[in-house]
Specification:
Layout lengths: L8 H85 L6 H5 L12 H6 L1
Length: 123
C-alpha cells in the first residue's frame, strides 16, 4: 500500500499540511464568520422577544390590577346587599326557613311533581 511506504511519507505530510491550511483558511475567513453573524442575529432577536414579552407581561399585570380595582367596589356592594337581604328575610320569617318559598311567590301553589317515565313503567 502506498500510504504505508516510507519513501512517500514526506510528500504525504506536505500535502496534508497544504490541504489543512487551505481548509482552515476557507473556514476561518468565509464560513465561520457567516455562522457567527447568524448566531448573533438570532441572539439579538431572542433578546428583543424576551424584552417584548416582559413588557407585555407588565402591561397585563397592570390591566389585571385595574380590573380588580374596578370590580372590587361593586362586588363588595353586592355582598353587602345580599347579607342585608338575607338578614331581612330571616327577621321577616321569624326563624321559619320552611316558609321562604311560599312568601317568595305569594298566591302561587307549588307545582305537583310529575312522575318520571321510568317510574310510570315500573307501576
Amino acid at each position: 500500500m502506498p500510504q504505508l511506504e516510507v519513501s512517500t511519507y514526506i510528500s504525504q505530510i506536505f500535502w496534508l499540511i497544504v490541504c489543512f491550511s487551505v481548509l482552515y483558511y476557507l473556514l476561518s475567513r468565509k464560513a465561520l464568520p457567516r455562522v457567527a453573524e447568524v448566531l448573533e442575529a438570532r441572539a439579538d432577536r431572542i433578546r428583543a422577544d424576551l424584552d417584548e414579552a416582559q413588557r407585555l407581561k407588565k402591561e397585563a399585570e397592570d390591566a389585571l390590577a385595574r380590573y380588580e380595582r374596578v370590580v372590587a367596589r361593586p362586588r363588595a356592594g353586592r355582598r353587602r346587599e345580599i347579607a342585608e337581604t338575607q338578614a331581612k328575610l330571616r327577621a321577616g320569617l321569624g326563624g321559619r326557613p320552611g316558609q321562604a318559598g311560599r312568601e317568595a311567590r305569594p298566591g302561587r301553589s307549588p307545582r305537583p311533581r310529575r312522575a318520571s317515565p321510568r317510574r310510570a313503567r315500573m307501576r
